[in-house]
Design a protein that fits this description.
The protein has 411 residues and is α+β, with helices and mostly antiparallel strands. It has helices spanning 2-10, 17-40, 59-64, 88-99, 145-159, 163-197, 205-233, 245-262, 282-303, 305-308, 345-350, 366-376; strands at residues 44-49, 54-57, 105-112, 118-130, 133-143, 241-243, 265-270, 278-280, 319-328, 331-338, 380-386, 390-398. A five-stranded antiparallel sheet has the order 2-1-5-4-3, sandwiched between helices. A five-stranded mixed sheet has the order 7-9-10-12-11, with helices on one face. A two-stranded antiparallel ribbon has the order 6-8. It starts with a helix and ends in a 13-residue tail after the last strand.
Length: 411
């Protein structure tokens, strides 16, 4: 079509009025077809000039992008495009592309709809070239919610395989209380049968009550095992969104600082300069780091229990909880280390197993659930511990493929 237009332009002075009208109709029809194609695309398409004022936008872009005033007439001719975006991170991304002349770059965002659901949106910025020079930018907007949902569903199906081990643990746990109940019921039955054959009286009251008390205790124990099992196997109700972990960690530190200070524990941090966005559930991520911190608190108190009781040491800090973040190989890494009592190799090998605990009143589900949550985030959690010196947990979370160069990065 471009060649046709050029040829027409070269011969324009030689064309008759009727020929010009025919050419105009053909060009008009062609433009209408192109516009229909652009408006019918499921991918959002936006073009802006070098000052980021709107040139063209299709209906998909209007539907997918979070504007300040949806449904109202857009006045992009007076404001840069990014000033009209009602999402802080996305607006800053577009503004950065404008100010630093960035092209061939993409990023992903989570956007809440009016119905309360969350959509995953991917935006790509590429150069708009006209007459062999950059005339602006093209913004492609894609709804990738279905893709992300399928990835999450596939991951959840893979984690279901781990339920076999949990079920085996529960079966083992149930055997002991069932055996105790069976033995004491048999004792009661034998005593009753013996007395019926002799004097017809019931067994002694204390004997019967002792047996029944044990039966009731074991029934309560069974009930707790079942409840804990249901907690362990229930699906993690994660609302995965793209967030930066910085604010979560800062709020977490503010939350635990008073308790740790009271127990003479210093909190030290070393965070990476620029935190990437992660696909996580903020509430569940906080649950994981709180679980780890509480284990560290208990380990530090156990190691320095005697020192904390010495009056002359009341102003000294013995414990240290260190949080460090870094980015490596497209992964965000969070390390939480303490100088507590540490663990034996046996404890380390079983620490994430459901029902395994070294605490007298522990359930053995805190770190098991933490492991399950991190796996739900498609991440990994591990630890290194030295008995008598301390423990370090390492949480590794994948960085979604955002902020990646498409063809190049011009600045």
């Amino acid at each position: 079509m471009q060649d046709f237009s050029n040829r027409v332009y070269e011969k324009l002075s030689k064309l008759s009025k009727s020929q010009i009208e025919r050419v105009y109709r053909e060009l008009k029809n062609h433009n209408e077809i192109l516009n229909s194609i652009v408006q019918s695309l499921s991918t959002g398409l936006v073009t802006v000039d070098r000052q980021w004022h709107l040139l063209e936008m299709n209906k998909a872009a209007e539907r997918l992008l979070p504007f300040h005033s949806p449904g109202q007439e857009f006045k992009f001719e007076t404001q840069p495009f990014f000033e009209l975006i009602d999402d802080k991170d996305m607006a800053e991304f577009f503004q950065d592309c404008f100010q630093k002349n960035k092209t061939n770059i993409s990023d992903e965002y989570t956007v809440s709809t009016s119905g309360g659901s969350v959509r995953f949106i991917k935006v790509c910025v590429t150069p708009l070239v006209a007459e062999n020079q950059i005339a602006g930018s093209i913004i492609l907007v894609e709804d990738i919610t279905e893709r992300r949902s399928q990835e999450i569903l596939l991951h959840r199906m893979e984690t279901m395989a781990g339920l076999t081990n949990i079920a085996a643990n529960v079966a083992h746990e149930i055997k002991n209380p069932l055996g105790a109940i069976s033995i004491h019921i048999q004792l009661l039955q034998k005593a009753i049968s013996k007395h019926r054959k002799s004097d017809g009286r019931l067994p002694e009251q204390k004997f019967a009550e002792d047996c029944l008390d044990i039966v009731n205790q074991e029934i309560d124990r069974l009930n707790k095992i079942v409840v804990d099992f249901l907690m362990a196997v229930r699906p993690v109700s994660a609302q995965l969104v793209l967030v930066k972990p910085d604010s979560i960690l800062e709020k977490f530190i503010q939350f635990i600082t008073p308790e740790f200070s009271d127990n003479k524990i210093k909190i030290k941090t070393e965070f990476c300069e620029s935190s990437p966005k992660l696909l996580i559930d903020e509430k569940l991520f906080r649950e994981v780091i709180v679980n780890i911190a509480q284990n560290s608190l208990a380990a530090i108190k156990e190691r320095f229990e005697n020192s904390l009781k010495v009056p002359s040491f009341k102003d000294l800090y013995f414990g240290v909880l260190r949080l460090r973040t870094s980015v490596k190989n497209d992964c965000f890494i969070l390390q939480i280390a303490d100088n507590g009592i540490g663990m034996t190799e046996e404890v380390q090998s079983r620490i994430f197993e459901p029902y395994y605990t070294t605490k007298a009143n522990g359930t053995g589900l805190g770190l098991a659930m933490s492991y399950k949550i991190i796996k739900e985030f498609s991440g990994d959690i591990s630890l290194v511990s030295v008995l008598g010196e301390g423990t370090e947990f390492t949480i590794t979370l994948p960085i979604p493929q955002t902020n990646k160069k498409l063809l190049g990065h011009n600045q």
